[in-house]
Design brief:
This protein has about 280 residues and is α+β, with helices and mostly antiparallel strands. The strands form two sheets. Strands 5-4-3-2-9-8-7-6 form an eight-stranded antiparallel sheet, with helices on one face. The chain has a five-stranded antiparallel sheet with strand order 1-10-11-12-13. A hairpin with a 2-residue loop joins strand 8 and strand 9. The protein is globular, with a radius of gyration of 18 Å. The termini are far apart.
């Protein structure tokens, strides 16, 4: 058997599934849905290591220690790399994709710095997106016009004029394009380059503010260096300033497993960003 260029054998699959609290099952839609939602609820989306200038990279050996060993989260390149490896180890047919975050209609589109995972299952193409700030809870069909209710949050898939797959979220009564995934093949070096840009380029927004998000039961929480946002399906969004000293409380509430040194350095860095 040819060794995977993605080094999927570096993932401790049993340890990963234990973290998620799910059992290994043969490929199937119900199992895929459960795995996706468990991943999103288990690991935070965050850029903590980027702010601490302590990001060791996106190889699976590194990510296995971070996600499986420590229970830490990360951003899209990390989430999607881990999730795709787990799926392949479980027998799913997987493709990795890159995309652009933002809505072309507002001129806010960024470079190809988002990573998603596609699963081909029973003749159906399914978009998995475990590493986005407001992540999908379950995969959605890659079918033009397909809609999916994600436990009260409506999403839609749309094929754009260039052949890219747009993922839209219903927000304040309007459909907002969150990102557009293209069909170009992705190789490990592409992920390394994207990660390097995102984590080191001075103008990258991951360098200039804190982002920690988690899907909890019935709500989605976002904490930045200055604000707290809580979204609930069908309810007005709660958005307020982060109170002095409150970040430490949220790190505990969102179960972010930092060492004492990491927490102190993060609090210091965020204080500088807020100032």
């Amino acid at each position: 058997m040819t060794e995977s260029p993605w080094q999927i054998d570096e993932l401790d699959l049993d340890g990963y599934l234990a973290r998620l609290g799910v059992a290994a099952e043969p490929p199937g839609r119900a199992g895929l849905d459960a795995l996706h939602e468990a991943h999103v609820r288990t690991f935070t989306f965050d850029n903590i290591d980027v702010l601490l200038d302590a990001h060791p990279g996106v190889t699976l050996a590194v990510l296995n220690e971070k996600f499986v060993g420590r229970g830490r989260g990360g951003y899209c390149f990390e989430h999607s790399t881990v999730f795709a490896a787990a799926l392949e180890r479980l027998g799913y047919e997987v493709r990795r994709h890159l995309g652009r975050v933002g809505d072309p209609a507002t001129g806010s589109v960024q470079g190809r710095t988002h990573m998603t995972v596609e699963v081909l299952l029973d003749g159906e193409r399914l978009l998995c997106d475990p590493g986005f700030g407001m992540s999908l809870l379950r995969p959605v069909p890659l079918v033009d016009g397909a809609e999916s209710d994600q436990r009260g949050w409506p999403y839609r898939v749309r094929l754009d004029e260039e052949g890219g797959w747009q993922l839209l979220r219903l927000r304040d009564g309007d459909w907002e394009v969150t990102h557009t995934t293209d069909e170009l093949p992705v190789r490990p070096v592409d992920v390394v380059i994207g990660h390097h840009y995102t984590s080191t380029f001075p103008a990258s927004h991951f360098r200039s503010t804190l982002m920690i998000t988690r899907h909890e039961e019935g709500r989605h929480v976002t904490v930045t260096a200055t604000h707290v946002t809580v979204r609930r399906p069908g309810a007005p969004t709660e958005h307020r300033d982060l109170r002095p000293g409150e970040l430490r409380v949220w790190l505990a509430a969102l179960a972010v497993p930092l060492t004492e040194d990491e927490e102190q350095r993060l609090l210091s860095r965020v204080a500088g960003l807020s100032a």
